């Protein structure tokens, strides 16, 4: 049964009636158009028991139909059905549907991986007016919510806490941030011991694209391709290995990892003495593309054991590994601008060892700044190792590598922007906050015959919502 919204004037501002979601339900008279209609997605596995408690409170305050448990309903199916219904109602002259479509905001409660999952789906929708997203910190790192002022500690789950959060959502401002597309292609001889990764072991926002033989049916080589995206960072090496060890242990013994503060400490250091760390330069050749549009090899010092491609000013639970380089160091490393979240540029940095990573905990501590670029390519060296550790936005995985004549290439490129909601405590900086005169640098603005774009087909979207094909409110670009 739907709640009587007339008893709570403030909740009317966020309320969406059931018929918007379910065409067969009767139309409901709403006394006022909501100023800030929201759809809430909650990962009830996140935050120990907090996710379950949070969904109970949201469903008491709002319409049960606008609050979704991600364990029961995937966001791509929810949004597909919602926008189909909104289009039908709008074409029928429903004013409320039009206003909800225009004013809609999304709330996602979970870790950074959960938030990235939703952002990938919104990106693949390619709506003319995509809804902005607010993030509730229910994970371990919580870099996305922290960057935009939503905090990094678990929120309260009582009614007063949720109402306060909803008020912040209503008062927050929209902010564009860059989306980054990643394509990973692995080619190896048929029957090679290097198998593809099982879908449950992949990050939410990384998907198998296809497994195809070469054009000749007799060819013994097979290609495995994955595509996806990130909004905060992609990393490889030591930090991903530490994170993978932590996540693996948490899967085996979830009862030991219910305290968020303890999880954040453990995720920095777990376990640091038994890792057999390898130099990045021994694993892969790294190429970058700057404004010139030319690929160039990035020199990686032999001491670097972890490399991070960073978009937001938060890493590993709210730390800023880029720091503030002096003007002399900026000139020395050809760093063209301060780190911004909407400039089409990634900051690339490295760590020498685990203790180097821990230096971030000290004032003005930072990693080794390597470059700024709007395209990055990792070409893994043959026979260097049989696996590498990687992670995107806090979700690590163990990537098999062929030890024979196979090849693995990972390429990162700019993929447009998404809209986040930011509070007054937002630490992320955009172009307009930093310097209105700076213009955005987009990868597509580069011109060169040396781009070697083997991934054009895979870059068409993130692969998070391939079934979305609308005839209505969609930009066909």
Automatic annotation (TrEMBL):
<dbReference type="InterPro" id="IPR037607">
    <property type="entry name" value="DGK"/>
</dbReference>
<keyword id="KW-0067">ATP-binding</keyword>
<dbReference type="InterPro" id="IPR017438">
    <property type="entry name" value="ATP-NAD_kinase_N"/>
</dbReference>
<dbReference type="InterPro" id="IPR016064">
    <property type="entry name" value="NAD/diacylglycerol_kinase_sf"/>
</dbReference>
<dbReference type="InterPro" id="IPR001206">
    <property type="entry name" value="Diacylglycerol_kinase_cat_dom"/>
</dbReference>
<keyword id="KW-0808">Transferase</keyword>
<dbReference type="Pfam" id="PF00781">
    <property type="entry name" value="DAGK_cat"/>
</dbReference>
<feature type="domain" description="DAGKc">
    <location>
        <begin position="33"/>
        <end position="186"/>
    </location>
</feature>
<feature type="region of interest" description="Disordered">
    <location>
        <begin position="438"/>
        <end position="458"/>
    </location>
</feature>
<keyword id="KW-0547">Nucleotide-binding</keyword>
<feature type="compositionally biased region" description="Acidic residues">
    <location>
        <begin position="447"/>
        <end position="456"/>
    </location>
</feature>
<comment type="similarity">
    <text>Belongs to the eukaryotic diacylglycerol kinase family.</text>
</comment>
<dbReference type="GO" id="GO:0007200">
    <property type="term" value="P:phospholipase C-activating G protein-coupled receptor signaling pathway"/>
</dbReference>
<keyword id="KW-0346">Stress response</keyword>
<protein>
    <recommendedName>
        <fullName>Diacylglycerol kinase</fullName>
        <ecNumber>2.7.1.107</ecNumber>
    </recommendedName>
</protein>
<dbReference type="Pfam" id="PF00609">
    <property type="entry name" value="DAGK_acc"/>
</dbReference>
<dbReference type="InterPro" id="IPR000756">
    <property type="entry name" value="Diacylglycerol_kin_accessory"/>
</dbReference>
<keyword id="KW-0418">Kinase</keyword>
<dbReference type="GO" id="GO:0004143">
    <property type="term" value="F:ATP-dependent diacylglycerol kinase activity"/>
</dbReference>
<dbReference type="GO" id="GO:0016020">
    <property type="term" value="C:membrane"/>
</dbReference>
<dbReference type="GO" id="GO:0005524">
    <property type="term" value="F:ATP binding"/>
</dbReference>
């Amino acid at each position: 049964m739907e709640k009587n919204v007339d008893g709570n004037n403030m909740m009317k501002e966020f309320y969406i009636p059931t018929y918007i979601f379910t065409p067969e339900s009767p139309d409901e008279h709403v006394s006022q158009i909501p100023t800030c209609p929201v759809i809430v997605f909650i990962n009830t596995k996140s935050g120990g028991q907090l996710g379950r408690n949070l969904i109970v409170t949201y469903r008491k305050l709002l319409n049960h139909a606008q609050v979704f448990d991600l364990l029961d309903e995937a966001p791509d199916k929810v949004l597909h059905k919602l926008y189909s219904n909104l289009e039908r109602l709008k074409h029928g002259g429903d004013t409320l549907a039009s206003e909800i479509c225009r004013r809609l905001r999304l709330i996602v409660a979970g870790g950074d991986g959960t938030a990235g999952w939703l952002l990938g789906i919104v990106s693949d929708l390619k709506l003319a007016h995509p809804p902005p997203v607010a993030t509730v910190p229910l994970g371990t790192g919580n870099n996305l919510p922290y960057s935009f002022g939503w905090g990094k500690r678990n929120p309260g789950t009582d009614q007063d806490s949720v109402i306060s959060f909803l008020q912040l959502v209503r008062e927050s401002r929209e902010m564009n941030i860059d989306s980054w597309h990643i394509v990973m292609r692995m080619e190896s001889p048929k029957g090679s011991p290097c198998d593809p990764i099982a879908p449950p072991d992949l990050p939410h926002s990384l998907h198998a694209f296809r497994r195809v033989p070469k054009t000749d049916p007799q060819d013994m080589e097979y290609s495995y391709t994955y595509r996806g995206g990130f909004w905060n960072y992609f990393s490889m090496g030591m930090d991903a290995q530490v994170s993978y060890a932590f996540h693996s242990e948490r899967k085996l013994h979830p009862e030991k990892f219910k305290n968020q503060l303890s999880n954040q400490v453990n995720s920095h250091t777990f376990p640091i003495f038994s890792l057999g760390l390898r130099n990045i330069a021994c694993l892969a050749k790294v190429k970058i593309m700057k404004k010139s549009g030319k690929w160039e090899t990035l020199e990686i010092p032999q001491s670097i054991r972890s490399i991070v491609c960073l978009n937001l000013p938060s890493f590993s639970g709210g730390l800023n590994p880029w720091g503030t380089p002096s003007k002399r160091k900026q000139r020395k490393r050809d760093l063209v601008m301060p780190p911004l979240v909407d400039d089409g540029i990634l900051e690339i940095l490295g760590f020498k060892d685990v203790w180097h990573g821990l230096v971030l905990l000290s004032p003005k501590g930072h990693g080794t700044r390597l470059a700024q670029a709007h395209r990055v390519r990792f070409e893994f060296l043959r026979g260097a190792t049989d696996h590498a550790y990687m992670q995107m936005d806090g979700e690590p995985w163990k990537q098999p590598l062929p030890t024979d004549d196979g090849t693995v290439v990972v390429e990162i490129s700019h993929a447009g922007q998404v809209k986040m909601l930011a509070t007054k405590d937002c630490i992320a900086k955009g172009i307009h906050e930093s310097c209105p005169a700076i213009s955005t640098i987009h990868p597509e603005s580069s011109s060169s015959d040396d781009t070697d774009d083997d991934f054009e087909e895979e870059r068409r979207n993130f692969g998070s919502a391939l079934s979305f094909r609308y005839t209505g409110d969609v930009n066909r670009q």
